[in-house]
From TrEMBL:
Keywords per UniProt: Amino-acid biosynthesis, Aromatic amino acid biosynthesis, Glycosyltransferase, Magnesium, Metal-binding, Transferase, Tryptophan biosynthesis
Annotated positions binding anthranilate 1: G75, N106
Keyword Repeat set for record: no
Cofactor(s) demanded: Mg(2+)
Pathway listed: Amino-acid biosynthesis; L-tryptophan biosynthesis; L-tryptophan from chorismate: step 2/5
Binding residue positions for anthranilate 2: R161
Species lineage: Bacteria, Pseudomonadati, Pseudomonadota, Alphaproteobacteria, Sphingomonadales
The protein's name: Anthranilate phosphoribosyltransferase
Its EC number(s): 2.4.2.18
Residues in Glycosyl transferase family domain copies: 70-318
Catalytic reactions on record: N-(5-phospho-beta-D-ribosyl)anthranilate + diphosphate = 5-phospho-alpha-D-ribose 1-diphosphate + anthranilate
Quaternary state and interactors: Homodimer.
Amino acid sequence: MTELPTADTQLTEAEAEVVFGQILDGEVGDEEIGRFLVDLSQRSETAEEIAGAARALRARLVPIDAPDGAIDVCGTGGDGHHTLNVSTAVSLVVAACGVPVAKHGNRAASSKSGAADTLEALGLDMEAAGRTAEKTLAEIGICFLFAKNHHPAMGRIQPIRQRLGCRTIFNLMGPLSNPARVDRQLIGIARPAYVPIYARAKAQLGTSFTMIVSGDEGLDELSLAGGNEVAEVRGSSFAMRRYDASLVDVPNAPVEAIRGDDAIYNARALKALLHGAPGAYRDAVVFNAAASLIVSGTSTEWDDAADRARAALDIGAAERLLGQWIEMAQ
């Protein structure tokens, strides 16, 4: 078995691609991988390491075709706040607005309910959704790209991540390795101070437009609680911004207002949201959906984007889309 470098050794992008290729190819023992991931997280991964690791994962993925203009909306997870599934709801809202969403995700690694867990509790057959992903994306503008179906090399890594129960570089690699190879993304990360580092990694990989966001309290999405650290990445460069909920004319709310629980609890909350329930969950979804619509290039102003998101909820378009998706994924 290959021995990994010590955590105090900062890797170049090329070196990181080799090291993570060895991890993904089964050339490293489980205990060694766990030690390396924890040590790397504790000393903080560099932009070069994230980009190199993502390249290794990209080289081993099973791709799908996607319509022009498809985007992804996801969070890195691992923020410890155990909120309701905001990015999952946002994906439905944005797709209902006519923007194809190739939702890339997994079951929970360090939270109570990941996107896959909640969608399954809503009635979506995850195995069938995986098999029909390319079809549903092409025909109704949404799909779920279950990581295990498109990243077979991750099969032995997921149990290690679950045993560790904390965020690792794999939380950061996933959003950068979408199997639909989307060129526009809204990515939430759990460390606001880390936004420019992650933005540099994304810039090294290239993008038409990606927004990297983190709530000041360490939420891996745009937060209602206060300010948000944001990097707008275009091409190989990025600019830092500060955004808050006033952009979409919704009130501030503490993270506790969108606290989630297990998959059944989160699914009920999402269903209520799609039925028109008001409150902080809806406001958080509108805020993040507006950002997604701006990232897609189909809206240029926050107020217009927020109005489109609200309309998708108010007229039941997002709810109908979920029903279509469940029906098609058989």
